[in-house]
Amino acid sequence: MASTAPPASATRTVLTTEARLFAREPAALFWVMVSPTLLLVVLGLIPSFREPSADLAGRRVIDLYVPVAVLFALIMAGLNAMPPVLSGYRERGILRRMSATPVRPATLLTAQLVLHAAAALVSSLLVIAVGRTAFGVALPGNLPGHLLALLLAVAGALALGAAVCAVARTQKAATAVGTAVFFPTMFTAGVWVPVQAMPGTLRRIVEFTPFGAASRALDETARGGWPSLLALGVMALWAVVLTGTAIRRFRWE
Question: Distance (Å, rounded) from C-alpha 242 to C-alpha 173?
Answer without folding.
Answer: 18
